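[job 0417] fold request received: Acylneuraminate cytidylyltransferase family protein
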Amino acid sequence: MKNLRKCLAVIPARGGSKGLLNKNIRLLNHKPLINYTIEAALNSHFIDELVVSTDSEEIACVAKLAGANVPFMRPAELATDQAASIDVLKHVVLYYEKEKHKTFEYIMLLQPTSPLRNANDIDEAYEVLIKSEGDSLQSITVSDTHPYLMREWTSGRLESYLKDQAENLRRQDLSELYVLNGAIYIVKRELLMLHNTMTGSNNYGYLMPKERSVDIDNELDLKWAEFLIQSS
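[job 0417] inference complete; emitting structure tokens
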């Protein structure tokens, strides 16, 4: 499927990380974490431009060596814990439109903390969105926990999280639910820039298996991802 609609992919990778020091460039099976996402994006058939948005010179250097564009350093106000991903995306889009005179119909967010997502996942997700004529898409995986089984624990008292629900349902009677795995987000440029959202009214999902849905947030996640890589 030839891509006639321009797609800009953004990898957000700020330098600060509270949970895991230097997370985005920590070595995972002897390779910087961000490299996995860069390589997947570069091997995609549908990404026209790949850019890493970072405030870190060290991350910028690693990203450039891996083949990504780093045309600017991210402004300090977009590199705080409170900075939203949507604002980072909008900053990149405006840069390309004003400085490079390039426009894109679709904007893709690829978080570097999802190293096991591959080029095939990216391409299949993109095709799902294009064929469905949707305005946004997020990658998902099957949820390990159903809300029915969740409980609120306050001052020792345990209560059902879902109020007014039938009790004593069997696990096999519960409907299968899905969670965002953080690996792939795609949105139409107009929806992002004019409506300030990543989720449109015609929103789609792309299902990924558990073994490629690891989201690196701490040391345990890193060890689990390394185990999966070495076991494959």
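[job 0417] notes: The radius of gyration is 19 Å. The mean pLDDT is 93.
[job 0417] exit 0
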